[in-house]
Amino acid sequence: MVARKRVSPPGLRVVNLGTLDDAIGFHLRRAQDASFRAFASSAGRHDLKPGHFAALLVIVNNPGIGQGALGQAISRDKSSVTPIIQTLFNRGLIDRQTSAFDRRRIQLSITTSGRALLRRLVPHVRAHDRKLDTIAGADKPVLLRALRRIANEIS
Amino acid sequence: MVARKRVSPPGLRVVNLGTLDDAIGFHLRRAQDASFRAFASSAGRHDLKPGHFAALLVIVNNPGIGQGALGQAISRDKSSVTPIIQTLFNRGLIDRQTSAFDRRRIQLSITTSGRALLRRLVPHVRAHDRKLDTIAGADKPVLLRALRRIANEIS
DNA sequence: TATTGTTATACTCTATAACTATA
DNA sequence: TATAGTTATAGAGTATAACAATA
Fold first, then answer.
1. I want to staple B142 with a disulfide (CB 3.0 to 4.6 A). Which of A142, B48, B84, B153 is the partner?
2. Nearest 5 degrees, angle CA B8-CA B11-CA B15?
3. pTM metric for this prediction
4. How many beta-carbon pairs under 8 angstroms link A with B?
5. Pairwise CA distance, residues A50 & A151, whole Å
6. How confident is residue A3, by pLDDT bands cut at 50, 70 and 90?
């Protein structure tokens, strides 16, 4: 009697996750991972990664914002913000203007071409958001509330 | 009249996140990020990172599991599983045994010392889980349901 | 002295592709 | 030919620390 495909390890078809299956952190990672990949393969294919997109959105919504505040908004260190800003600037998507009040500060704003890219991207981003919204369905408000709390309150 | 601290950019104290504030993906990333850091600085300080811990948990719950199936369980490529397994093995936390049925397959199982580490770690992990559970409160079932759906259904 | 942003650097996590050995 | 696991390698993404300019 020959050992056949799949027969070898007895009863291992379904992986038992144990307590992991009840751990919010574990599912948080899987969901974030899946969502990130899905975003990257739709909007990301169109030349703007999630991080860059988020930064651009913050800038368009907060013209004149500095890199420190931007970093806080997207929860990144200022040293992580620098390369993002450089990319956006090199592509002509944003402007940098030294503040007249404080010459250490650089005021960020979106350019016409940045707006154009955003417009071009919005449908894809919307599609991604809608996918998530559809999946979350009526759970969305509760989901967002829980996620916000986790991000803000955990220590 | 001298320009004083914080006065320069008019009205920028609070960052306006715009549509980002309504995007599940954005909050997913922030929550996952915060949760990961919190875990790393409690249980992680005790020598096992989230990824390694998750792998060890899957192994303890599925003795004899192979690296492919393990990777599927934690949503990682087999090439990402290899270094995790090596670390766990080098620390004597798991055993690898070639399957008698299929000598390509390596059956993973936890060692006594792996169990001991797990026991030692459980309080910290529990504390982290409890923190998340407390924050999620009554929202937890809905949160988990939404996270599972996102991980499984998004494309 | 403190703060804004940059640079240099390094670390973690991950995947792709090519490989070995088995099947 | 196909599959389990390894290796080599590369690329994102991020942070820490030291720095320059300015406050």
1. A142
2. 110
3. 0.84
4. 231
5. 18
6. very low
